[in-house]
Amino acid sequence: MKSIVLFALTLAFVFPVLAQNEQSPIVNRDIKYQNWKYPTVRDISKEIDLRELSKGKKLVVVVYFAPWCPNWRFDAPKLEAFYKKYQAQGLEIVGVGEYDPVDSMKRNIDSLGITFPVVYESVSRAQRGSTKHSEYHKETGDKRYTGSPWYILLDPAKLAKDGDTLVKNADVINGEMIMVEGEAYIRKALGLPAEDNAKKPQPAAAAAIEACDPKKPVALKKP
Q1: Topology given in CATH for the domain delimited by 25-198
Q2: What tens digit of pLDDT does each residue of 62-76 get?
Q3: pTM (2 d.p.)
């Protein structure tokens, strides 16, 4: 009995650590990314238009996520820290919730202390193959089952002024953000000097796992 309890406790502590290692570098990809107007998670009677949200900003980070995905829960607090640190310098972050009911999304972002705007595209896991998110992350080479989180980094100065397509090429992240790289990218886009990362504590490497892909074994190595 004691061994069973010990095993359960080990899983409880180890699995969240394992689930954190889906980090992926920022890469440039051809992508026909379209403008959207989605309802907000906090108030479904209100909508956000991405093109309008981007006006007056220097960088817009759009992050697609599934609330139940551990990989998203690892990135979320760090994104919130970036939002608070750089919003006044021209950074915008907007989350796009996927594959879960809106009430679950709201509980998720509230529990994570998210204050940046969050909208939703889909409300069920059954919609996974039919969303724009699914189309985009596959188009950019992301082979993960769910694709959470998935990022597109937009330079508002390069967005088309009208029409459905905002950009035909952009920087994306097909997985969790490598936070040191992400912050360096943000600072450069905002015209801020580089920070001395040597003085910052670096995260320890974790065993690789595709936490949000039920079809892959937990010992799968990340490419």
Answers
A1: Glutaredoxin (3.40.30)
A2: 999 999 999 999 999
A3: 0.84
